[in-house]
Design a protein that fits this description.
The structure holds two protein chains of two kinds. Chain A is mainly alpha-helical. Helix content of chain A is 72%, strand content 3%. Chain A contains 20 helices and two strands. In chain A, 59% of the residues are buried. The C terminus of chain A is likely disordered. In chain B, helix 14 runs antiparallel to helix 20. The chains are: A mainly alpha, B mainly alpha. Chain B: NDH-1 can be composed of about 15 different subunits; different subcomplexes with different compositions have been identified which probably have different functions. Chain B: Pfam families: Ndh2_N (PF19530), Proton_antipo_M (PF00361). Chain B: It catalyses: a plastoquinone + NADH + (n+1) H(+)(in) = a plastoquinol + NAD(+) + n H(+)(out); a plastoquinone + NADPH + (n+1) H(+)(in) = a plastoquinol + NADP(+) + n H(+)(out).
Chain lengths: 500, 518
């Protein structure tokens, strides 16, 4: 059942890429991949409906022996932590393909790379074996490099190689940690349930957890390791930015939750205070740097860094509530970032610039881009955490859950959330409001097909904002059971320290 | 001594595969003498058929009950079979590549094939040789043929220079090796057979004496030269650049595999008493090779030179398995060498194909190739990415197994270094992929703009295509469907008495050392 999510995209990627001759015409490539992504999305929704939310463990498990010598088995499963990420992945893949330019150069390579990434990400979320996870994790590397380098902006070569090196280093760290985890536990298999870190000495646990935090922190990204992100996000085309920010960044946070918190509960509670502070720094840093930006895409990129800080804070607090908040934040950040990038892409395509100094008056009903601006306002509000939209729900739950454990970092994050509102107001003020410049404003019409993804995303954002149960119900049991493993006495000690 | 007894001690059946190679080799030479140049149309296929028959013969020798032949000077155990298979297979692919290349250079194909098969023969005998003289002779057979092959395109000054360099360095390293070997003969009280030497040294109570250490170092100098480990690597970039490309394809796989086969046999059987010492030396070699190979490869502009440094680095990775010295370590080496065969030969086939069509092998000239030659682009990209260890290609699984085995044996720093240098290696491998795939049509190099119409029907192109597609498929799926190869590698180690005996010997050795300490 779950294999379908991985193999349909990958096999169709191979077919689109390698089909000899012109049996798949380049112009059809988009249609074919859209169909494939649609099928996968429907299948994913079907799995979501069949998902039993009262069961905390892995569901729909699949098992195939693969390589006994390496302890690598084809072992899949889905639980509350990953189900939303899977849906997000297939949903955003569909959106990304839909919003791709119809006249993309070299369409067959483009769509096959997008589908390959999608299948690989699904595999990473589904894997129940460390090595299998790593395999799918590294599988993103080359397709994304090509997507940045071929269809990117002006400085794409630089951005691409930077992305490649950062991600490869992150992969090396993760692999080293995985090898260490498995060998120190004396297990002969990389399966999740075969690896229990309980009997590793505390020092080793901290070392391994450090590797996990660094490895996934590069991907998330956390502050000193984030420098690849603005370059990569800015240089890629809008649909790829949706995938990169919406889906790939979630691999980092998912890895942190699954392998950091899930596999090292004791060591996690030791380093949690510093992680909380790190999260707060991330949030403030992202917001402050975003205020200084003159390019909308760059602003959105830094906003993404800031939002990752909330997730880290919530994960560090690791109360049942804050973890639910973290998962909700991951999902809502995914859809909000997707709509923002999509709208920015449309603005860039129609107006021809992304500079805050050159844009103005897009709200103008007749000659501007009124609907796009309205949606931009809505999504900026969602990102800043205005009630009634999904961003608020996620942030509020995370802060509510974290406050009891780490009050000061939480307050700092609330401040950062305020700063988010500041730069989004700057962004909206400079783009949507004001007057159109008469000599420049002859923008092409935005056709309905281009607005569709944004409308779908916007209605989803509003729906989840007013009906948040649908956002949080999937992960509740799983996260509660994850928290139950964390030793409690240390937690009280830590909260005392934090209070002082 | 009656005749039957001698026959059973000779046990000549163990070298049946080599016998087939010899017959084919002579056949190639004689046919060439009789028919002259006209035979060059099919003489390559004759050689390939012979080598494939030899591989089939190897298959039937798997798990032979009595592998020791020629009164102990040749050991046809499973370990040797797998290495002989690798060498023969690399010769097969090399011939597929060279049919067109050698024809185009205006030299005789049959002579080339004959020398190549002699080198193969030397390598195959080296894999199973278990006696000092036998080792030396087969090593020399391999080396001398390699010198000849390197300078085969004798009108090209670069080829001549490469041959001279290779000859001078090779001959001196063999001399050093010979000195080490003669020391072993003396230390052990006049034994030449490997296990007898080990016993002789143990009995003579010279364990860890200065003489043994010097012998070890001299032997390692010879081995390090063959596998192009870092301080003994200086010939590699120059030879790779100057020699005919099919020759370096063979040197990078066949000759290297022979070197590793020799390393395993010699070090585990003869030097269990100084196991810590040779592990230490090889750790140093591995560190140097990984760092130097990968870092210097970043700065190369010629494809062949880049692959030369890459092969130095890859040798460093393989040495991790040798240093680990466990069953998993040895079998990870074997597995890596197997997949290295596919990826490197696939890469070199593409390089040959490109230089046959355009006459150059500068990396910058590859830019924009995807439009003109998609198959070549695909083959070279896949093989280079596999060399970089990108999943789900064969090289990824090879590296994972090496690192896994290294980690199990406690070589944490070495594995971490391997991981870091792999990241570095991805950078220079992907540079080529970027040239070919990412560049826009207007950024195409002049060479690619004038790229000839692709035609596989020219003489000698069909075998190149077959070789390319076969190695490409193998590189792609050998990782995903790696179980048979894993089983093969594991079994060959588990069924090899010398590697199993080594553990006992090393425990005995440590017992002796502790006794002496007391």
């Amino acid at each position: 059942m779950l294999s379908v999510l991985i193999w349909i995209p990958i096999i169709s990627a191979a077919i689109i890429g390698f089909w000899p001759g012109n049996a798949i015409e380049p112009s059809r490539a988009r249609l074919v991949s859209l169909t494939v992504a649609g099928i996968v999305l429907l299948w994913n929704v079907f799995i979501l409906l069949k998902f039993d939310i009262s069961y905390p463990g892995m569901q729909f498990q699949e098992y195939l022996p693969w390589n006994e010598t390496l302890g690598l088995n084809y072992q899949l499963g889905v639980d509350g932590l990953s189900i939303l990420m899977l849906v997000l992945n297939s949903f955003l893949t569909w959106i990304a393909i839909y919003s791709s330019n119809k006249n993309t150069e070299r369409p067959r390579l483009y769509y096959s790379m997008v589908l390959l990434v999608s299948g690989g990400v699904a595999g990473a979320f589904l894997a129940e074996n460390l090595l299998l996870f790593f395999l799918f994790y590294e599988l993103e590397l080359i397709p994304f490099y090509l997507l940045i380098c071929i269809w990117g902006g002006e400085k794409r070569a630089y951005a691409g190689i930077k992305f490649l090196i950062y991600t490869a280093v992150s992969g090396a760290l993760i692999l080293a940690t995985f090898l260490g985890m498995v060998w120190l536990t004396g297990s002969h298999s990389f399966a999740f349930d075969a690896v229990s870190t309980q009997n590793i000495s505390a020092g080793m646990q901290l070392l391994l957890l450090g590797g996990i935090v660094l490895g996934f922190g590069i991907k998330m990204p956390l502050v000193p390791f984030h420098t690849w992100l603005p370059d990569a996000y800015v240089e890629v085309s809008a649909p790829i930015a949706i995938l990169l920010g919406g889906v790939l960044a979630k691999l980092g946070t998912y890895g942190l939750l699954r392998f950091g918190l899930g596999m090292f509960p004791q060591a996690w509670s030791v380093i949690a205070p510093s992680l909380a502070i790190w999260g707060a720094i991330n949030a403030i840093y992202g917001a402050v740097i975003a205020i200084a930006q003159k390019d909308i895409k760059r602003m959105v990129a830094y906003s993404s860094i800031g939002h990752m800080g909330y997730i880290l804070l919530a994960a560090a607090a690791s109360t049942p509530l804050s973890l639910v908040g973290a998962v909700a934040q991951m999902f809502s950040h995914g859809i909000i970032l997707a709509i923002l990038f999509h709208l920015v892409g449309i603005v860039e395509a129609k107006v021809g610039t992304r500079e805050l100094d050159k844009l103005s008056g897009l709200m103008s009903p007749i000659r501007g881009l009124p609907l796009i601006s309205a949606l931009l306002v809505l999504s900026g509000m969602a990102s800043a955490g205005i009630p009634g939209l999904t961003g608020f729900v996620a942030e509020f739950i995370s802060f509510q859950g974290s406050f009891s454990t780490f009050p000061i970092p939480t307050l700092l994050c609330v401040v950062a959330s305020g700063l988010t509102a500041v730069y989004f107001v700057i962004l909206l003020n400079r783009t949507c409001f004001g007057r159109l410049q008469n000599n420049l404003a002859y923008y092409p019409k935005v056709v309905w097909a281009e607005k569709m993804p944004a409308l779908i995303l916007a209605s989803l954002i509003i729906f989840l904002g007013v009906q948040p149960t649908w956002l949080v119900r999937w992960s509740e049991t799983t996260t509660t059971s994850m928290v139950a493993v964390i030793p409690t006495p240390e937690k009280t000690v830590i909260s005392e320290i934090a209070l002082k | 001594m009656d005749f039957a007894n001698i026959a059973s001690q000779l046990n000549a059946g163990t070298i049946l595969p080599e016998g087939i190679v010899i017959i084919t080799l002579l056949g190639v030479l004689i046919v060439d003498l009789i028919l002259g140049r006209t035979s060059s149309r099919w003489i390559g296929y004759l050689a390939i058929a012979g080598l494939l028959t030899a591989i089939v013969a190897l298959y039937f020798q798997w798990d032979a009950t009595n592998p020791i032949g020629f009164t102990g000077s040749f050991n046809g155990d499973d370990l040797s079979i797998i290495f002989r298979g690798i060498i023969a297979l690399s010769a097969v692919v090399t011939i597929l590549m060279s049919i067109r290349y050698i024809e185009q250079s205006g030299t005789a194909l049959a002579e080339f094939i004959a020398i190549l098969m002699t080198a193969t023969l030397g390598g195959m005998f080296l894999s199973g040789a278990s006696e000092l003289v036998m080792i030396f002779i087969s090593l020399e057979t391999l080396s001398i043929s390699s010198y000849l092959l390197t300078g085969y395109t004798k009108r090209d000054p670069r080829s001549n220079e490469a041959a001279l360099k290779y000859l001078l360095i090779g001959a001196s390293s063999t001399a050093v090796f010979l000195y080490g070997v003669s020391l072993l003969y003396g230390l052990s009280g006049g034994q030449t057979e490997l296990s007898a030497i080990a016993n002789g040294i143990a009995a003579a109570n010279v364990s860890q004496s200065l003489g043994l250490v010097i012998a070890l170092v001299f032997v390692i100098a010879g081995i390090g030269f063959k596998i192009s480990a870092a301080p003994f690597h200086q010939w590699t970039p120059d030879v790779y650049e100057g020699a005919p490309t099919p020759v370096i394809a063979f040197l990078s796989v066949g000759s290297k595999a022979a070197g590793f086969a020799l390393a395993i046999r010699l070090l585990t059987v003869v030097f269990p008493l100084v196991a810590d010492e040779w592990r230490f030396v090889f750790t140093a070699l591995a560190v140097l090779s990984m760092v130097l190979g990968n870092v210097v490869a970043l700065a190369q502009t010629s494809m062949k030179r880049m692959l030369a440094y890459s092969s130095i680095a890859q040798a460093g990775f393989v040495m991790i398995g040798l240093i680990a010295g466990t069953d998993a370590g040895y079998s990870s080496m074997i597995f890596y060498l197997l997949v290295y065969l596919f990826m490197n030969l696939c890469g070199f086939t593409c390089v040959i194909l490109f230089s046959l069509r355009t006459g150059t092998d500068q990396i910058a000239e590859y830019s924009g190739l995807y439009q003109k030659d998609p198959l070549l682009t695909l083959g070279l990209s896949i093989s280079l990415l596999s060399l970089g260890g990108i999943p789900p290609l064969a090289g990824f699984f090879g590296k994972i197994y090496l690192f896994w085995a290294g980690w199990q044996a406690g070589l944490y720093w070495l594995v971490l270094l391997g991981l870091v240098t792999s990241v570095v290696s991805i950078y220079y491998y992907i540079r080529v992929v970027k040239m070919m795939v990412v560049k826009e049509p207007q950024e195409m190099s002049d060479v690619v703009k004038n790229y000839p119409q692709i035609s596989w029907n020219l003489p000698g192109f069909r075998p190149l295509q077959v070789g390319l597609i076969a190695t490409l498929i193998a590189t792609t799926v050998a990782g995903i469907l790696s179980n048979p190869l894993f089983t093969l590698a594991n079994n060959s180690v588990a069924n090899t008495p010398i590697l199993q005996a080594e553990k006992i010997a090393s425990t005995q050795a440590s017992a002796i050392i502790t006794e002496q300490a007391e």
